[in-house]
Amino acid sequence: MPYPSDRERDRPWVMRTYAGHSSAAKSNELYRRNLAKGQTGLSVAFDLPTQTGYDPDHELARGEVGKVGVPVGHLGDMRALFDAIPLGAANTSMTINATAMWLLALYVTVAKEQAEVEGADWHEVVARLAGTTQNDIIKEYLSRGTYVFPPGPSLRLITDMVAFTVANVPKWNPINICSYHLQEVGATPVQEVAYSMCTAIAVLDAVRDSGQLPQEEFGSVVARISFFVNAGVRFIEEMCKMRAFTELWDEICRDRYGIDDPRQRRFRYGVQVNSLGLTEAQPENNVQRIVLEMLAVSLSRKARARAIQLPAWNEALGLPRPWDQQWALRMQQVLAYETDLLEYEDIFDGSSVIQAKVDEILTGARAEIDRVQAMGGAVAAVESGYMKTQMVGSLAERRRRIEVGEEVIVGVNKFDTTEPSPLQAEGAKAIETVDPVAEREAVDAIQRWRASRDESAAQDSLDALRTAAKTDANLMAATLACAQAGVTTGEWAAALREVFGEYRAPTGVSGAYAAGEAGVELAKVREWVKATGDEIGERLRMLVGKPGLDGHSNGAEQIAVRARDTGFEVVYQGIRLTVDQIVSAAVQEGVHVVGLSILSGSHLEAVPAVVEGLRAAGAGDIPVVVGGIIPPDDAKTLLEGGVARVFTPKDYEMTQIMSEIVRVIREANGLPA
After folding, report:
1. pLDDT at position 315, please?
2. By Cβ atoms counted within 10 A, which residue in 386, 414, 530, 639 is the most buried?
């Protein structure tokens, strides 16, 4: 976005809604409707198989296709996704990380094809492409869990993309350093700022040390680094956080990298406000939460977001409908066009109160950056589990404050009496649902795609990719060749898995504790856990499992920490497990309960599969409980299918959840409940 002089009215930010589901064609219809409503940029949500490098017909993709985003398996899907949307004039954000290079290659190829159809010079069109690939793999190891490769090869893919885009797609941001999900998994403002900056340092050091670009072009590299942040409802603190981000980034670019041009040192960021802070209880309260959180990233002109996307009021219930997304867009438009927000210089300059809070965040962030750099940097702090443990501990402490009422959540732990909401009067129709036929159609479509392509060309391009991956060559050229040859998402990722291997990040559970947990209720549950174990004749064991591709593990981690603190022996192997792996672990470990965590919407497929798997293994007496974003009708279906309990975001008291799980174990073992 261009920045006007201080005497001009500031230009509005890019307005987006995060969207995509079911299929490329249906998502394309949604994008075109949103653009017609005044949206000025696109934000593409990809489904989990696409994000983690699997085709729709892979075992791990079962139940996940088209659920939390659009499936893009090959060039044909990318063509359909942007049909009738000229990419040379678009501003597109793609939330994609481990497979970012692949999706960028598909995007660039479609832009080239569009230019050729129009008779334009495709080089000029590609040079105009504007937008970003999220591509922050460090935060994937810490939060979202859609990583694939180990840290070293992942950093290489990012480095190659940065070098390629600076040379060939100069308006594209090849990476969003993404603090958004760090806040979701518990990061304090200090941790959010510090760990984001550590990631940026790791990326810039890697690009500089790769030797792919001359030193005189390094300013262009720095200028293309963007950020994606989270804004919570404590909007004064959040605004101060953004001013601290701005100051610290300018300082690092100037002092560490010697960037003299202040325009190249600008802290450029987009934002989505805090989706995880939305409540299932009294969801109408989410509307004012979203508006207040938007103020945090728009009030301070010097630290104003240049792109904003807002969640819908009902995202704690399920997938929002087009009308819900329209409401979120209108919130932005009212703020930008009806208020006088954009008419003034920074209204916080000179405030001693604001500057004191900014300085507090800066002091803490600098100290934490120094601590991480002393460990060897962000990658080393991921591999050791340090950063993950710090955030699991921070989230455990926040959960404690909520449970004891120190932190008020309106409609949840205070002011919880309510009238029936007319917004939910439609019942199941109050959220969007993905037709199960979408997955079958995607499986059939990708099999037809493979059958119709030049198989020899596809395999040759994959061989060339494997060969290049074993050298230090930039992998964008080989990836573009794969895209043009009709290679699929799963095939591209599988070829690199062969060379790079896969990775399982530390969970952070073993070292995380929350101070002050030992309250009266926790002590009661701990005694009940011990007594139940004595009655059964062994210590109670709980398996916490995340089936499928859902990598949002903070809920599972908090359950694991609380179960351990109440006296359970906890078996937690992290994310991305097959049904067979969960069943096998439950049987081998002799657990007394299996707890499944699913936030991706695949609960109706994955949970019954685990229940049936336990029965088939002769362990049908092990009760299964599940937690996640599960609509009431789906919860009823799961309970009728043999699930013992269903927990949703309204069940915020984790010690009470532990108590209920003990009750489930007692029922399963014929003990008085």
Report:
1. 86
2. 386
